[in-house]
Specification:
Helix content is about 35%, strand content about 25%. It has about 150 residues and is α+β, with helices and mostly antiparallel strands. Keywords: Acyltransferase, Transferase.
């Protein structure tokens, strides 16, 4: 099995939307609005300042992906790269797909001068937490707080 990583293109929108819908349901039992999600994915591809998607291919077939966004840190005078919207198709899980995606993000972040990587993980998702810890990511001392400014999708 060969895993290769590439930057997403508009041809990947359907996969990215489907994977986000599946991930939201699997991890939070949330139903996302596919049309709103499609617009959100396309907005990243159309405006690279928002971030970028990476696609993992296994033997030439798309098997997973993730989104990277940026957060400026005045304390560190540099960007944190946030890993988001991680999804690996069930048949490719536990086979190094996320490890390859993570390595590609870390390499690109180092090359770009980023100060660190961050990600969110569901508090109940022990498997994902173990995966991230195995890649050297550590739980930080911050809690996340949120205030929505838009109505949730129905």
């Amino acid at each position: 099995m060969t895993v290769s990583i590439r930057t997403a293109s508009p041809a990947d929108v359907a996969d990215l939307v489907a994977w986000n819908v599946a991930m939201a349901w699997e991890t939070e039992h949330k139903r996302l609005d596919p049309e709103r999600l499609r617009r959100g994915v396309e907005a990243v591809l159309e405006h690279p300042r928002r971030g970028f998607y990476l696609i993992a291919e296994v033997d030439g077939t798309a098997a997973g992906g993730l989104l990277v966004t940026y957060e400026w840190s005045d304390w560190r005078c540099g960007d944190f790269w946030w890993i988001q919207s991680v999804y690996v198709v069930p048949a490719a899980r536990r086979s190094g797909v996320f490890r390859a995606l993570h390595a590609a993000v870390a390499e690109r972040a180092r090359d770009a001068g980023a100060v660190g990587l961050r990600l969110y993980v569901e508090t109940e998702n022990a498997r994902a937490q173990a995966t991230y810890e195995g890649l050297g990511m550590q739980r930080c001392h911050y809690f996340m707080c949120e205030a929505s400014l838009v109505e949730p999708a129905a």
